[in-house]
UniProtKB/TrEMBL annotation:
Domain named Glutamate/phenylalanine/leucine/valine/L-tryptophan dehydrogenase C-terminal: residues: 190-419
Keywords: NAD, Nucleotide-binding, Oxidoreductase
Name of the featured protein: Glutamate dehydrogenase
GO biological process: L-glutamate catabolic process
Active-site residue numbers: K113
Single annotated GO MF: nucleotide binding
Family: Belongs to the Glu/Leu/Phe/Val dehydrogenases family.
Ligand binding (substrate): K77, K101, S355
Keyword Hydrolase set for record: no
Chain sites annotated for binding NAD(+): T197, N228
C-alpha cells in the first residue's frame, strides 16, 4: 500500500486506519484480496439497548455493543469498556486489535470487544450493577466460555466482572467462571491479572531499552493515564529504579523533572484512576506528551499522538499501553525520527495473555501460583517482542506493520483451512 494512502488517512476513523494496516500486512505476506475482505470487519456486531432503573426511579436506556471479529482460531476474547465516548466504529476496531494481540501471543482465540455508552463516574454502585447485569442479559445469546469471553477494559473492573459472571451463571443455571476473566481471586480470578497489562508493558520497555542501549535505572519516564495500566506501570518503573517524571488522568497532568512520589499518588488516586484533581499546578495531557523524557507510555485513550504533535515528542522509546494512542501518520513520523515505537497490539497484550491463563485455570479447576503466571507471561511476551522486532528489521517495515504481519497470520491460515476463503 502506498504512502499516499497512509497520509490521506490521518483524519480517518480507528476502523479505517486498522483496515489500512491489515491490508498492508496481508499484501506483504502474500494473502489474497478475499482474505482481506473477510478480515476487514468483524464477523458479528450486536447493538443492544438496555433499560435501567435509576436511583431516582426514572428509567434510562443505555446503548451497548459487542463485536466479534473472527472466530476461526477459537472463541473470541476481549474487554468491555464503560465510557461516554464509546461508539460502534471504535468497538469494531478494538475487536480487530484483539484478534491481532491473540495472534501475536499465539493464544487460541480470535478478537472480540464490547462497550456501553455511559459515564460510570456519574453513576451509583447500584446503577452500575444493574447496567452490568442488563448488558449480560442483552448479549447472553452470543457469549459464553466457548463462544466469546469478555474481560475488563476502560472504567470496568473485577467487581463488574463478578456481577457479569453471576448474571451469566444465573441465566445458564450453573456456575460459569470461564464466561469472563479479570474476576476477583475468590471467584476464580487469576493471580497476576490485575497487574498483567502493566507487566506486559514493562517487559516490552525492558526489551526496547536493551535495543536502544538505555539503562532502565535512572531512565526518565512519562505515563499518560493512571488507571489499571498506567498506575501499575508507574509503580513497576519506579521500583525498577527509573524516574517517573510525569503522569496524567482525564482531568490533567502533573510533571516533576526530579521524579514524582509514585507511592503517594497511588495511595491518593480514586477507583477511576483520578489523582491530578488534588494538585493546584497541573499541565494538560497534550503538554505532558511533549515534555523531555527517555520513555513515553500512553496508557489512557486513543488518538493522542498525531501528526500535529509527533514532531514534538522527545522520547526515544514510545510504548503503547493504551489501544490506538498513535495515528498512522504519527507512526510514520516517529519511525522516520528513529523513535522505537512498540505498538499497542504487542505492548498491551499482557492483559489478554493472563486472561487466557485465567480461562485455562477455570476450565481445569486447578489454580496456579503468581510465580507460574509471571514466568509464563514473560516467556510469551519476550518471544513475541523478538519476533516482531526481527520482522521489522528483516522486512524493513515499521514495528506496527511488523506486529500486524505476525498477528494476522494465524487467523488468515485458520480461515483458509476452514474453507471460509
Ligand atoms: N485493563 C486492561 O487489562 C487493558 C487495558 N488496555 C488499554 O489501556 C488503556 C487504559 O485502560 P485501563 O488502565 O484499563 O483503564 P482505567 O479505566 O483503569 O484507567 C483509565 C485512565 O485513563 C484516564 N483517562 C480517561 N479519559 C482520558 C482522557 N480523555 N485523557 C487522558 N486520560 C484519560 C483516566 O483518568 C484513567 O487514569 C485503554 O486504552 C485500554 O483499552 C489495553 C489492554 C488491557
Ligand atoms: O483480558 C482480555 O481478555 C482483554 C483485554 C483487552 O480488552 C485488551 O487487551 O484491550
Amino acid at each position: 500500500m502506498s504512502t499516499t494512502i497512509k497520509e490521506e488517512k490521518e483524519t480517518a476513523s480507528l476502523l479505517d486506519s486498522t483496515q489500512v494496516v491489515i491490508k498492508e500486512a496481508l499484501d506483504k505476506l502474500g494473502y489474497s484480496e478475499e482474505v482481506f475482505e473477510l478480515l476487514k470487519e468483524p464477523l458479528r456486531m450486536l447493538t443492544v439497548r438496555i433499560p435501567i432503573k435509576m436511583d431516582d426511579n426514572s428509567t434510562k436506556i443505555f446503548t451497548g455493543y459487542r463485536a466479534q471479529h473472527n472466530d476461526a482460531v477459537g472463541p473470541t476474547k476481549g474487554g468491555i469498556r464503560f465510557h461516554p465516548e464509546v461508539d460502534e466504529e471504535e468497538v469494531k476496531a478494538l475487536s480487530m486489535w484483539m484478534s491481532l494481540k491473540c495472534g501475536i501471543v499465539n493464544l487460541p482465540y480470535g478478537g472480540g470487544k464490547g462497550g456501553i455508552i455511559c459515564d460510570p463516574r456519574q453513576m451509583s454502585i447500584g446503577e452500575l450493577e444493574r447496567l452490568s447485569r442488563g448488558y449480560v442479559r442483552a448479549i447472553s445469546q452470543i457469549v459464553g466460555p466457548t463462544k466469546d469471553i469478555p474481560a475488563p477494559d476502560v472504567y470496568t473492573n473485577s467487581q463488574i466482572m463478578a456481577w457479569m459472571m453471576d448474571e451469566y451463571s444465573r441465566i445458564r443455571e450453573h456456575d460459569s467462571p470461564g464466561f469472563i476473566t479479570g474476576k476477583p481471586l475468590v471467584l476464580g480470578g487469576s493471580h497476576g491479572r490485575e497487574k498483567a497489562t502493566a507487566q506486559g508493558v514493562t517487559i516490552c520497555i525492558e526489551e526496547a531499552a536493551k535495543r536502544k542501549g538505555i539503562e532502565l535505572k535512572g531512565a526518565r519516564i512519562i505515563v499518560q493515564g493512571f488507571g489499571n495500566a498506567g498506575s501499575f506501570l508507574a509503580k513497576f518503573m519506579h521500583d525498577a529504579g527509573a524516574k517517573v517524571i510525569g503522569i496524567s488522568d482525564a482531568y490533567g497532568a502533573i510533571y516533576k523533572p526530579e521524579g514524582l512520589d509514585i507511592d503517594y499518588l497511588l495511595d491518593k488516586r480514586d477507583s477511576f484512576g483520578t489523582v491530578t484533581t488534588l494538585f493546584d499546578h497541573t499541565i494538560t495531557n497534550q503538554e505532558l506528551l511533549e515534555q523531555d523524557c527517555d520513555i513515553l507510555v500512553p496508557a489512557a485513550i486513543s488518538n493522542q499522538i498525531t501528526k500535529e504533535n509527533a514532531h514534538l515528542i522527545k522520547a526515544q522509546i514510545v510504548v503503547e499501553a493504551a489501544n490506538g494512542p498513535t495515528t498512522l501518520e504519527a507512526t510514520k513520523i516517529l519511525t522516520e525520527r528513529k523513535v522505537l515505537l512498540v505498538p499497542d497490539v504487542l505492548a498491551s497484550s499482557g492483559g489478554v495473555t493472563v486472561s487466557y491463563f485465567e480461562w485455562v485455570q477455570n476450565n481445569q479447576g486447578y489454580y496456579w501460583e503468581d510465580e507460574e503466571v509471571q514466568t509464563k507471561l514473560k516467556a510469551l511476551l519476550v518471544n513475541s517482542f523478538n519476533q516482531i522486532y526481527e520482522m521489522s528489521e528483516t522486512r524493513k517495515v515499521d514495528m506496527r506493520l511488523a506486529a500486524y504481519m505476525v498477528g494476522v497470520r494465524k487467523m488468515a491460515e485458520a480461515s483458509i483451512f476452514r474453507g471460509w476463503v
